[in-house]
Amino acid sequence: MSIFLQVILRSLETGSIYALAALGIIIVFRTSNVTNFSQGVMGMFNTFMVTSIFDKLGLPLWLALIGGVITAIVMGVIIDILIIRHAKKASPVAKQIITLGLMMIILGLTPIFFGVDPLRLPRIIPNGDLRFLGASISYNGVFNIVFGLGIMIALFTVLQKTKLGLAVRTTASNEYTAKLMGVPTKNVTMAAWAVAATLGVISGVMVAPMTSVSLNILDEVQINALIACVLGGFQTFYGPVIGAYIIGISRNLLLYYFSSIWGGQVLYIIILVFLVFRPQGIFGKKIVKKV
After folding, report:
1. How far apart are CA 101 and CA 93, in angstroms?
2. pLDDT tens digit string along 76-114?
3. Contact 191, 27 (CB under 8 A)
4. 137: three-class secondary structure by DSSP
5. Best CA proximity match to 103, nearest among 191, 41, 20, 181
6. Beta partners for 130?
7. 112 contact partners, CB below 8 Å, separation of at least 6
8. Which tens digit of pLDDT belongs to each residue from 110-138?
């Protein structure tokens, strides 16, 4: 029982990281109608920025994170104004290819700014473990879970309870109608890209202590976040978040109890079979076009 509980606790931390990345992807998709394949590398670049601020300026990690959030917001705004806004009339496939191009550009620029050697970033809470019913998890892991849930709850509260959230939901429902109602859709999409970039750097800082800050630090997170969006459904904001936690928990359970080698592949096969019978995802709705 203690082992099972420990796997669940670790999975909640992993799921929180996947969920933040998935939420960034779905916010951009619902407002800009584009699947952002560059979400991972945007987070990677700004994680390098956090690490650079932390190492070279000697600031506390939380201050370095604030600096990374600022650069992430700037990056998101620049991408929207200079690129996405001018591709409004492009097809959805063309927009996806644009984000793939962004990914290649950011991957090329990162070594120029930060070098080719992997960097190290410590935990926000460096020491200490929490023990519960025989299971243990680091205080930093608990912080990641609570902090991730706090950010998501705050975003969902904004989406449901504020005028800004109403503008986002209106734009996500129908951008043309939102414009007719006086919603500043350009500002909404710009804010969506800024929020997505911010969620990316937070995911990167959470992952960094488990590995190293390198070009592929968020590759696995990006893949699982995209799968979470498909599994949860692209029609809601909360679906991909729930899908991310399902993937995080199920993957770790399969890796521990089924196979440390094939557990992940088995999960993806199960998801693929599920999508054959329900391609719109768990919370997605089947779109019926009237002729």
Report:
1. 13
2. 999 999 998 888 778 878 888 999 999 999 999 999 999
3. no
4. strand
5. 41
6. 137
7. none
8. 999 998 888 999 988 888 888 877 778 88
Span 137-191, pLDDT tens digits: 888 888 999 999 999 999 999 888 888 888 888 887 777 778 777 888 888 889 9
State CA 35 to chain mean position distance: 12
**DSSP structure class, residue 205:** H
Helices marked H in the chain — which ranges? 2-32, 39-57, 61-82, 92-114, 139-161, 163-173, 175-180, 185-207, 219-232, 238-257, 263-277
| CA 165 remoteness from chain centre | 19
Q: Rounded distance, CA 204 to CA 3, Å?
A: 27
Higher-pLDDT residue of 164, 242: 242
Q: Considering the entire predicted model, what is its pTM? A: 0.91
pLDDT category at 70 given cuts 50, 70, 90 is: very high
Q: Please state, in angstroms and rounded to a whole number, the distance separating the CA atoms of residues 121 and 47.
A: 9
Residue 41 has pLDDT above 70, yes or no: yes
Pick from 67, 95, 91: which is nearest to 79 by CA? Answer: 95
What confidence category does residue 229 fall into, taking pLDDT thresholds of 50, 70 and 90?
Answer: very high
90-128: burial string, b at 16+ Cβ within 10 Å, e else: eeeeebeebbeebbeebeeebeeebeeeebebebbeeee
What DSSP character marks residue 119? B
Cβ 201 vs Cβ 23: under 8 Å: no
**Strands 135-138 and 129-132, sheet pairing:** antiparallel
